């Protein structure tokens, strides 16, 4: 039974709980992250801090957000490099001197100002039913459309259209998963927003390739 409130959603037939797979919104409480139900992360080993594992440069004071839709599948080592990772590049040196010269007198506004670098990107947005392969890297400000597949170790520096497959460094579109008419119909269906009972009842159609049956 799919359960969006459980920490570990994968249980084997013998009752063994797979503790390396977690529902992300059950293990992350971060003011700059929004994570939809059933979006999971699978790591080779249990992780102490899942927010830091997937988005190590997203801080509570960061201006940008990481938004992850529903039913997103994130493999081991995939990372979101958000805008707060960036160094200032408008001057002669990129060295972050101010990061290492804070004192007890350094105020909140001064710390927050460190994130306001020229040319920074906005939010990183991952659509619904996206699969990110092992050690994929998503760069700041990227939007990945619903149903997209990101290849292992891809470095995604530009937006990815819905139901596209991208791979490589820099990541480039390898192919469309379906023709445009099918993509449009799938985006109109938005099965991930259906009631849970309906998703479970129709999971064969959702996982299948008969669009007429899914629409019925």
TrEMBL record:
GO molecular function, one term: acyltransferase activity
Key words of the record: Acyltransferase, Repeat, Transferase
Superkingdom as given in the UniProt entry: Bacteria
UniProt cross-references to Pfam families, sorted A to Z: Hexapep
EC number: 2.3.1.-
PROSITE patterns, sorted: HEXAPEP_TRANSFERASES
Stored InterPro entries: Hexapep, Hexapep_transf_CS, Trans_hexapeptide_repeat, Trimer_LpxA-like_sf
Gene3D superfamilies linked to this entry: Hexapeptide repeat proteins
Family: Belongs to the transferase hexapeptide repeat family.
Name of the protein: Streptogramin A acetyltransferase
Organism name: Pseudodesulfovibrio hydrargyri
């Amino acid at each position: 039974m799919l359960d969006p409130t459980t920490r570990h959603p994968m249980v084997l037939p013998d009752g063994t709980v797979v503790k390396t797979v977690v529902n992300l919104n059950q293990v992350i409480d971060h003011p700059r992250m929004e994570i939809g139900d059933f979006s999971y992360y699978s790591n080779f080993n249990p992780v102490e801090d899942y927010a830091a594992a997937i988005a190590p440069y997203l801080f509570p004071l960061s201006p940008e957000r990481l938004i992850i839709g529903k039913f997103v599948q994130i493999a081991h080592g995939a990372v979101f490099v958000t805008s707060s990772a960036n160094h200032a590049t408008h001057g002669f040196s990129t060295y972050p001197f101010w990061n290492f010269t804070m004192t007890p007198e350094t105020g909140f506004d001064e710390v927050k100002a460190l994130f306001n670098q020229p040319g920074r990107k906005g939010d990183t947005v991952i659509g619904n039913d996206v699969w990110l392969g092992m050690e994929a890297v998503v760069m700041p400000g990227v939007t990945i459309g619903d149903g997209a597949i990101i290849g292992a170790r891809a470095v995604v520096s530009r937006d990815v259209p819905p139901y596209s497959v991208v791979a490589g460094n820099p990541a480039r579109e390898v192919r469309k998963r379906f023709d445009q008419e099918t993509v449009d119909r799938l985006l109109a269906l938005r099965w991930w927003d259906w009631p849970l009972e309906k998703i479970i009842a129709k999971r064969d159609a959702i996982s299948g390739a008969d669009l007429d049956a899914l629409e019925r």
